[in-house]
Amino acid sequence: MTIENDYRWRDGFPKIGIRPTIDGRRRGVRESLEEQTMNLAKAVAELLSSELKYPNGEPIECVIADTCIGGAAEAAAAAKKFKNAEVGLTITVTPCWCYGTETMDADPSRPKAVWGFNGTGRPGAVYLAAVLSAHAQKGLPAFGIYGEDVQDEGDTRIPDDVQEKLLRFARSGLAAAYMRGQSYLSMGSVSMGIAGSIVDDSFFQEYLGMRNEYVDMSEFTRRLAEGIYDPEEYTKALAWVKENCAEGPDNNPDHLQNSRERKDLEWETVVKMTLITRDLMIGNPRLAELGFEEEAQGHSAIASGFQGQRQWTDHSPNGDFLETLLNSSFDWNGKRAPYVVATENDSLNGVGMLFGHLLTNTAQIFADVRTYWSPASVERVTGYKLEGKAENGILHLINSGSAALDGTGEQEKDGKPAMKPFWEITDEEVDRTLRATEWRPANLEYFRGGGYSTDYLTRGGMPMTMFRLNLVKGLGPVLQIAEGYSVDLPAEVHDTLDKRTDPTWPTTWFVPNLTGQGAFTGVYEVMNQWGANHGVISYGHIGADLITLASVLRIPVNMHNVSAEEVFRPRAWGMFGTSDPESADFRACQNFGPLYK
C-alpha cells in the first residue's frame, strides 16, 4: 500500500449524478422521448468524465439514474441510487416539458443544476423555467443552463456555451462536495495575533460541511523525541534533500550564524517535521507497523495550518520547508497531488488554497500581499520606469518561504511558464524547479530556532488569480478576487526592491487586470481594498469558477474583475436584483444562509 495512492485516497471521491427527466404522460408522449432524453444524459456524463479529473488524476465518475424521471417515484428511486453511490452533486437534463416539483432534486445540501434543451419540438425551456421557479420557492437554489442557439429535435450535441456552464458547475460542485465531511487540522493556535488563524469552527461546519481538528505544537516535539515517523522514509527523504535542495547563502550577521553542525541538525529536523505533518493530516499505515496504531490514523485533514511563530520558531526550526514542500506537486516519493498547508495557521487563507486546488488540481502560492510599488516609487528607488503590464504599478507578493515550488513557473504550457496538475509535470520540469530554488538559512532575527526559507523568483507572463476569504462580524465570510499576471522586472530592479524586504524569501511580482471600476480603478486600489495580510495565488484566470463555488457555498463576493458574461450563479440570484449583481449576491447569500446550517 502506497501512502500517495491507495492510502491517501482510500475514502474515494464524490460522484456526479445525472438526472434525465421526462414528460410522464404515457401512450406515446413519454415513449417518444425516452431515447433522446437518456442520450442527453449520457452525452453530459461523457463530457464531464472526459474533461474533469479528481485530485489524484483519475477521471471523475458520473452516475446516471436507472430510468428517466417522470414523477416522484422515479425521483425517489434516483435519489436512493445516488445516496448509495455517494453522489455529491446533480445535473438534471431534459429536452421536454416535465412536472417540476415532482421531478426535481429536493436534497437541500447537494449542489444542483438543470439543463433545459433549447429546442422547438418540445418545451425544454418551459420546464427549465418552471423547475427553477420551484427551486427558488422552496429555498433550494439551482443553476439554470440554457443554450443560446436553438437546436433541432433529436440533436444530442452539447453546444459550446452549454459545455462551459456544465463544466463550471461541475468543477465547483465537486469542490464543495469533496470538502464536506473532511477536516481542517490546526497545528498549534493563533500566530502573532493574526485573525485568520483564529479558527472559526462555525464557519467550517456551516459553510463548508467540514470538521475541525486540533493538535498542539508539542505534538511535533513528542513525535520528534519518540521517533514517531517512518525511519526508512526519513532516510530516503534526507538523501533526496541533500541531493536536490541547494542551500543558499546565509544572510545573517557573522555573530548570529549557526555552525555547520547546527545547520545540518536543522535540515534533519525540518525533514522529520515534513513527514510528521503529512502523517498528522492523512495518517500513515507504516506507523501502525511500528507500534503507533493511534498515530497511524491521522486526522482526515484535507487542509491544515502550522502556527510556527512565535512559540515554536523562537526555539525550533521554522515551518517553511514543510509548508513549501507539502504545498508543492512533488517530493522524495515523486510527483503527487499537493497537500494544503497554511502558513501561520491562517485557516482562511488555507480555505482559499483549498478552493484553488480543488478547482484546478494545481499547487497554490501562499503569500503576504506585502507592498504596492507605484511607478513613481520604483523609478525613485531604481531609476527604472515600469512598462508593459506593469506600467500602472506592481504588487510584491512575498512570504517567509511557504510558497509552493511550482510557483517558480519552471513548468510550461505551449512554451510559456505555467503551473500544472502533477500528472502533466515532466521530470525535467521538476529538475528545473529545484534548480531555480535556493534554501536560505532562516533570518534568525525572525526565527531564533533557525530553519530554512524558500528563495525563488516567479517567472513573468503567467495568468494568475489572487484571492482571499475574509470573515466579517455580522456578515460572515466574503471572498475577494483579482485576476491578473505575473510580470518580470530587470534583474537589477528586482534585486534592489527585493532586498528592501527579505531576499531569502520567494517573490511573485503581480499585476491585477484593471477595469476602471470599483476596486479595479488602479493597482493601488486593489492593494488598498485587500481584506487581510495574506492572499492565495493560483495559476490561470479562475475567478469565474471561484464565483460559482462561492455561490454554491452561499459566500458573497465583495470584489472581482471577472467579466459579467462569465459570472454563473444560481438562477434565484436574479430574483434579488439584476442591475447590481454584486449587491444581489449579498442579499441572496444572506437570505438562503449557509449550505449546511
TrEMBL record:
A GO term from the CC aspect: cytoplasm
Domain L-fucose isomerase C-terminal: 397-560
Domain L-fucose isomerase N-terminal-2 positions: 182-361
Known EC number: 5.3.1.25
Catalytic residue positions: 344, 368
Protein family: Belongs to the L-fucose isomerase family.
Record function comment: Converts the aldose L-fucose into the corresponding ketose L-fuculose.
Name of the protein in question: L-fucose isomerase
Name of the encoding gene: fucI
